[in-house]
Design brief:
heterodimer, A: mainly alpha, MetI-like fold, 2 domains, two-stranded antiparallel ribbon, 17 helices, 1% strand, B: 292 residues, mainly alpha, 13 helices
Chain lengths: 319, 292
């Protein structure tokens, strides 16, 4: 009986001590907190306040009434979204671009990194790297503009080549069938080179003796790649794949918006562009916020799920 | 190392590997060469030669045309201002936040870190963010291109990882000498962090130079449009020059060379800093992979 009271007392004392220690630490670091303060306020206002603003998706938001004064409508906007004939079109388009990103784009930087890793002449390797990183620093406007002047019907170099080769001209920019190939080719052009950096870095950590040993055992270059290089960068691949999945619905508003036009809308309209049109051009703030919320929510669920899956398979995950 | 016997298979592998990589680099870069080449060509040559890379007749016609109106100067001015001002602004707050959060003994550090990382996984989306930008009075001001993107969480994390990997002893000895946290940051930490500072500054600068989406979201006034918006207008909508109504009442639609020249103008500043980027960025991008 007595011993328990002592322990309880002891615990209280320790708690108190800890608390005063915490206080001492906070006071000692008051300038550090001062440094963080502006950044913290930034995140609060421009990142967390918009999250709070998501509640307008449950309201009939009127700008003059504000978030406080607008009428609550429950799930009306979400019901409208799911019932809308456009929902499945947009859902499918978003999913298709996501599929292209994961299955077509994602492996490419890995393959290029493996190829670069096999290059023994440093000058050649560095020159290739220098050139393939360049498009990453171009804006989407520049990438799309260049594509536009290359692909346009009159005077575009691509159609000129097609014509010379005896094919008929293709109106790439307005053609529904060409939208997805064009989208993913532009993504590859801009990001494939840059994407190699992280894989190349992971590869440099591989012990060269492993290759030596593999060569002794008679493994050819492909087998060395398969049995040594790829396993060594597996964790990096998985982490990046999770991040990519987290980006599922961030397919690049800017990029798609620049490619979107009235003739390819059936394949090019995605959630982001739909939010923009419905919200900012048509002024349906609540409805478009609901659409954005749905998109963001799915994205968050996907990344948590992907991370859980990675951990299930004893991989590191991102958190 | 002793010279090893290289098998025939290995040699074939090398041949294809080098060939494909060279091809890849060439394909990546050819469109740029085509655009730059065409921008210096005469309209006549463009019409004649279909696969132009280097013009035979060098002409500044297109550049003279685009610089003959005030529009492009205004757009370039906006872009330069936003890029320089925005980079300084973003770096200032990013460095302060990153350094603060790099201190391991800070109470609440994990929570603050989580709050920042979470914004990478989830956000309020376009409309609620727009409403906040509107309510904070930034609409139609150039600040709208800067303040809502003050700190890029990825860049902040890269900086933080860098600061965390600096030797601890430096700060402690300075502390004993009575220096406060601000003078430790500005006098001791920053001078030895120049590679990281340079990398992240360049990342911010490129982002600001390339800003497009925020301009169309937040700026209705065409006079405040940065060069990317103007480029879009000229190349795709082919109406950019018409905004300058006084000097261009019946402007002809821009010719191919004009479009090419505008692309070049919107790109050149990035290409100018590219060699510097090249020097630091690989390191910077790698720092980002360090988990914290």
């Amino acid at each position: 009986m007595e011993t328990t009271t002592v322990t309880v007392k002891e615990q209280k004392r320790i708690k108190k001590l800890k608390r005063s220690e915490t206080w001492r630490n906070i006071k000692k670091n008051k300038l550090i907190y001062l440094m963080i303060l502006p950044g913290f306020i930034y995140f609060l206002i421009y990142k967390y306040l918009p999250m709070y603003g998501l509640i307008i998706s449950f309201q009939d938001y009127k700008p003059y009434k504000g978030v406080m004064g607008s009428e609550w409508v429950g799930l009306e906007h979400f019901q409208r979204l799911f019932a809308s004939s456009e929902f499945w079109m947009i859902f499918k388009n978003t999913l298709m671009l996501f599929g292209l990103q994961i299955f077509i784009f994602f492996p490419i930087p890995i393959i290029i990194s493996l190829m670069l890793n096999e290059v023994r002449h440093q000058f050649f390797k560095r020159s290739v790297q220098t050139l393939i990183y360049i498009p990453h620093f171009m804006s989407w406007v520049v990438i799309v503009s260049i594509s536009y002047v290359l692909l346009t019907l009159d005077g575009g170099i691509v159609n000129a080549i097609l014509e010379t080769l005896g094919f008929s001209k293709v109106n790439f920019l307005l053609n529904e069938e060409w939208f997805r190939p064009m989208y993913i080719l532009q993504v590859i052009w801009r990001e494939a080179g840059w994407g190699t950096i992280i894989f190349l870095a992971a590869i440099t950590a591989v012990d060269p003796q492993l290759y030596e040993a593999a060569r002794m055992d008679g493994a050819n270059r492909f087998r060395q790649m398969w049995h040594i290089t790829i396993p060594a960068i597996r964790n990096v691949i998985i982490v990046l794949l999770i991040l990519k999945i987290g980006d599922v619905l961030e397919l690049g508003f800017e990029h798609v918006y620049l490619l979107l036009n009235s003739s390819n809308r059936n394949v090019a309209e995605i959630f982001d562009t739909y939010v923009y049109v419905a919200g900012l051009q048509q002024g349906q703030f609540s409805y478009s916020t609901a659409v954005g919320f749905f998109k963001g929510g799915v994205g968050l669920i996907m990344v948590v799920f992907a991370n859980w899956l990675a951990k299930k398979f004893n991989e590191e995950g991102i958190y | 190392m002793a010279k090893q016997q290289i098998s025939a298979g290995s040699r074939v592998f090398d041949f294809f590997n080098y060939f494909l990589l060279a091809l890849l680099a060439l394909i990546t870069i050819l469109p740029f060469i085509h655009v730059v080449g065409s921008s210096f060509a005469t309209s006549a040559e463009i019409a004649r030669t279909k696969f132009l890379l280097f013009p035979t007749e060098f002409s500044l016609q297109a550049y003279k045309y685009i610089f003959s109106t005030g529009t492009i100067f205004r757009a370039l001015g906006v872009s330069v201002m936003v890029t320089i001002g925005g980079t300084i602004w973003s770096m200032f707050f990013s460095v302060l936040t990153a350094y603060g959060l790099s201190r391991r003994d800070l109470v609440g550090r994990r929570t603050l870190n989580f709050l920042i990382v979470f914004t990478l996984l989830f956000n309020g989306g376009m409309i609620p963010t727009f409403l906040v930008v509107q309510q904070t009075g930034l609409l139609d001001s150039l600040w709208a291109l800067v303040i809502p993107v003050t700190i890029n969480a990825f860049n902040m994390i890269i900086l933080r990882s860098f600061f965390m990997n600096l030797p601890q002893g430096l700060e402690e000895s300075a502390k004993i000498d009575g220096a406060n946290d601000f003078s430790i940051l500005f006098r001791i930490v920053l001078p030895i962090s120049l590679p990281a500072i340079a990398t992240i500054s360049l990342f911010y600068a490129v982002t600001y130079w390339n800003t497009y989406m925020h301009a169309i979201l937040y700026l209705a006034d065409a006079d405040k449009w940065p060069v990317q918006v103007l480029l879009r207008q000229i190349v795709v909508l082919a109406s950019g020059m018409n905004y300058d109504a006084e000097s261009y009442t019946d402007a002809p639609p821009p010719e191919v060379t004009v479009k090419m020249a505008t692309i070049v103008v919107a790109t050149v500043p990035v290409l100018l800093v590219y060699p510097f980027l090249q020097k630091y960025f690989a390191k910077g991008a790698l720092l980002g992979s360090v988990k914290g």
